[in-house]
Amino acid sequence: MKILSIKKYKDLRGKKVLLRADFNVPIKNGVVRDDFKISAGLATIRYLQRYNAKIIITSHLGKPKGEYNEKYSLKPVATRLSRLLGKRVAFVPGVLGLEAGSAISKMKDGDIVFLDNLRFNKGEEKDSKQFAKNLAKLADIYVNNAFAVCHRRHASVSAIKKYIPSFAGLLLEKEIENLNKIIKPKSPLVVVMGGSKIGTKTTLVKKLYPKADKVLIGGALANNFLLARGFDVGKSLIDLDSVKFAQKYKSEKILLPSDLLVKNLITGKISVRKADEVEREEAALDIGPNTIKLFSSYIKRSATIIWNGPMGMFESSRFRNGTIAIGQLIASRSRGKTFGVVGGGETVEALYKTKMQDYVDWVSTGGGAMLSYLGGEAMPGLEGIVRR
Ligand code: ADP
Ligand code: MG
Prior knowledge:
With 388 residues, the chain is α/β, with parallel strands linked by helices. It is built from 13 helices and 19 strands. The strands form 5 sheets. A 6-stranded parallel β-sheet has the order 6-7-5-2-8-9, with helices on both faces. It has a 6-stranded parallel β-sheet with strand order 12-11-10-16-17-18, sandwiched between helices. Helix 8 crosses helix 9.
């Protein structure tokens, strides 16, 4: 494993550095709602400043589909970044073009120029060579710090590396180093999986299964496994491809919920049911109290733990218990007895609800990218800068 880190580049003074960040953060009424990803990227920006580089920041935000849309402008992010750094950030309301060129030509060492959303340009998501070349022309070197899009073949993380010397940012480097500890785990490895975007999780289950001592499955993901074992799951969320997948995983290594918190979709009544006693009109929306105990006993014995996917529909306070209990336990074991990694869009959101996120060894900024990396899938954004 070799990472071409920006730390290995010795001559940053005065160099124009195109920094591909992942500042895809929630914005409401022109204000950043959650700056977890901005904070995570600060160390790299400070590093570049310390060595007097000229920093040109780029990112994507949402899905503007290749054309300008004010709703997806990164201006609020530039404002927040400036506040977090305590330094002026010159925002350019475009990606290429005259304004960008002129702002960059005026930069002094240590200055920051922030370009608008890469996805305003149709070339970005098409991995366009021309767009990548034009981006590359803006700078002397390129730094990829956007782990969350490294599983995508997009111009600003993929094609661009052909046209400019390319390096990994500090955050990207840390993501890889920490996720590699899951790929080569200290045993016992306990994998905790849940959530509802099931199609994206099967490769991870496949890949980690042989290394894991236990795979604890909750959330909607568990419904498919329960169904595959012949349990009636009533009106619970399932998807048939995943049921087929689950049929191949019936060993003792996979631990399913023994009880569930269900809601009767007709009467609205909420009850705890044994996993084999879910009724026809009921949907499982959280793991039950015995399952929390059962899962906890394995989490406590782990030396390495990875958690992706909430244990239930945690957005509703009535179905949050399992997710919070498991999240708290994972956090309290991390940084000590266990090496713990937590990742996934909603999983991280849930972890923050425990207020114990700072105890976890590594909270990944990559949702889908983390799953792809751990699942051993192609990572176009890493090619050339990370050798596996
Ligand atoms: P992540 O983004 O962390 O990888 P997913 O996107 O796969 O996680 O799943 C998160 C969603 O799964 C949450 O919005 C949560 O409400 C939903 N969910 C979890 N368990 C259930 C369940 N039993 N029934 C319905 N939805 C569930
Ligand atoms: Mg999600």
